[in-house]
Write a structure and sequence with these properties.
The protein is an alpha/beta fold and 301 residues long. Helices cover 33% and strands 21% of the residues. It has two domains: 233 residues, Spore Coat Polysaccharide Biosynthesis Protein SpsA, Chain A, CATH 3.90.550; 58 residues, no CATH class. The radius of gyration is 19 Å and the shape is globular.
Length: 301
């Protein structure tokens, strides 16, 4: 069986360039089971920054000014938050980068510590047409156990976006699938379902706010759970959400690890905490702390 043609894609505007550079550097510092190309969605790059990525052999595709999904509030949203163009582009990755068998998406504020996640996501997507994606739920994410109001937050998001009691009741207690990291084949049925549900919601959503900002993710969750589409839940360490749990540092190995025993290494970090580049107080295995930004480029400082 021939090896699949794979592309690993992210997206960036000028503000996210330092993080995107960190991401691509971290990717290239490892060896993988499969070969793959690198791609980047340009959602507001200067000519110099765009050229800088292209010189690194990264395929850069500019997101269309009109967007992949037109909707009544589009101009208002993009004026308020231009980077929101990446939300509507994600479900259309095969359109931007045609000719690939597998598409693996990584948000620009992610970096790679080990090869395991990328290898497993590609291998799984080569074997089936299921969506491969991690949940926003893990034993280390204490918020879900100590502050159950997080489920109320999900309830408010679904109700605000769908305005449908049946959808809200069905979805509220489902573990949220996080679209910061995902992989699937070009033939996965999730693509079309995600596009259609997302487009429908956008036609009915007048404002971008704290409850509707997650539209892109909610649409994918509804597509998967309510249409019973194939998906494979991947380990949380493949998309470790730092806003929910900071890692610990194993000084013996230099690796960031899960904060609960047996302190397994984390494969990919998603810097969902703010501000992302500020030094964090990170506990060490065996005691003590270090203070440094949780960036790939800051690992050896």
């Amino acid at each position: 069986m021939p090896k699949p043609k794979v592309i690993v894609v992210s997206g960036s505007d000028d503000a996210f360039v330092p993080l995107a550079r960190d991401l691509f550097t971290s990717i290239r510092d490892h060896s993988y089971k499969y070969e793959f190309d690198l791609g980047l969605l340009d959602i507001g790059l200067s000519d110099d920054n765009r050229a800088g990525f292209e010189k690194q052999n990264i395929r850069v595709e500019k997101v269309r000014a009109e967007g992949d999904i037109d909707y009544p509030a589009r101009r208002i949203w993009e004026a308020e938050r231009p980077a929101c163009k990446v939300f509507t582009a994600k479900p259309f990755l095969p359109r931007y980068f045609p000719g690939y068998d597998i598409y693996l998406w990584l948000d620009a504020d992610i970096w790679v510590q080990t090869h395991d996640a990328i290898d497993a996501l590609i291998e799984g997507s080569a074997e089936s047409n299921a969506l491969h994606i991690a949940m926003e739920f893990d034993r280390c994410y204490s918020l879900f156990f100590q502050k159950p109001q997080v489920w109320h937050m999900y309830h408010e998001w679904y109700q605000a976006c769908f305005n449908d009691d049946n959808v809200t009741a069905h979805m509220t207690l489902k573990p949220m699938l996080n679209v910061g990291v995902f992989a699937m084949s070009k033939n996965a049925p999730v693509w079309n379902a995600w596009q259609k549900i997302y487009a429908d919601i956008l036609q009915r959503t007048p404002q971008l706010n704290s409850k509707t900002i997650m539209l892109e993710q909610l649409a994918l969750n509804v597509a998967v759970y309510m249409m019973n589409l194939p998906y494979v839940p991947m380990p949380a360490s493949y998309n470790w959400l730092t806003v929910l749990a900071m890692p610990m540092l194993d000084k013996k190995t230099g690796m960031y690890v899960e904060p609960l025993p047996p302190h397994a290494p984390i494969s990919q970090f998603h810097l969902t905490h703010k501000p992302k580049e500020q030094a964090q107080k990170i506990a060490c295995i065996g005691g003590g702390f270090i203070e440094r930004p949780l960036l790939y480029s800051a690992r050896n400082t």
